[in-house]
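Human: For the file, kindly provide a plain-text protein record giving the amino acid sequence and the backbone structure tokens, at your earliest convenience.
Assistant:
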Amino acid sequence: MKKGLLFFLVFCLCFTFSGCGKSKAVIEADNLIASIGEVTLESNGTLQAAQQAVSNLTDRQKKQLENAALLDSAQDTYDKLLTAKVEQAIAAIGSVTLDSGKAIEKARKLYDGCSKEVRSAISNYATLQEAENEFSQQKVNNVINLINQIGTITVNSGDKIAAAQTAYNALSAEEKSNVSNYKTLSEAPQKLKAKKRQNATAKLKSETDKVEGTTWYKAKVNPDYANVRSYALPYIGTSSGFTWLRLKYLYTGDSWIFFKSITISVDGRRYEAEFSYWDVERDNNTDVWEWVDVSATDADIEMLKAIANSKETIVRFRGDQYHYDLVVSQNDKNGIKDVLAAYEAMK
């Protein structure tokens, strides 16, 4: 009697641990499948978690799943919903124009994010490919047209060149290779620069030193001789592809000042420049003249811009005992503007 009871208990234990028992992994996988619920396009995360849990099971454990069929059905439903979404996105592209980029990109991104099974089920994929090809060709044609619109280069061609360059930069490498008139665009910036330089220097007078190979550009109001009048004016030098800006302060009158410093009041704002006795050059005949000729710094350029746009600028040539005040005329201000504009175009 006791032996029979013992065998019965052992049998029950064996049945419990080997016949009916499920591992924790199987139970968790079944629970994940059950949690999927109603399938929508937002179910992908839950589906992937369930699929991963199932893929981690052994073949024996997979046979113990109660919700395996439910997972297959849920995945099938989700794939159909996703297929419909991609097909709708492709259909929404409609007639291709230059404004179709976002719609095409959206459809392509959705398609590329699908599984192989979903991709194979999408019925209008060829429409997406055709739209991409058409859009690419339209972009190329647009760039060609923008380049053609540049036409003859003038000083006002900058916006057209920039528009064509921006559109060209947005193309793929293959698309760029199909722009038949790219050479025109590639040459346009240099032609524009040359045109601006030509236009800017046309307002100046120039003189070339054939021995040194240097050309000097000065404002037309800049006196040709030192003893004509006092002034503070910039001028440009060019040689062997280099361009630089200089600034000349010149005083002339019937008395020596022996100036060592210059104070410039631009609408009340003061600028100072100090010089040694030997920095200043001097000469005379019936009149005297004194001057300094320096390389213009960035600070000088900002000062010159301020002078050119000022209501009143006074340049004081200051010596130990005497000084002379020069009120900068509007003609000189305009001359400064012309030189600075040419310098910007030339450098």
Remarks:
- Confidence is low (pLDDT under 50) at residues 1-19.
- DSSP finds 13 helices and ten strands in the chain.
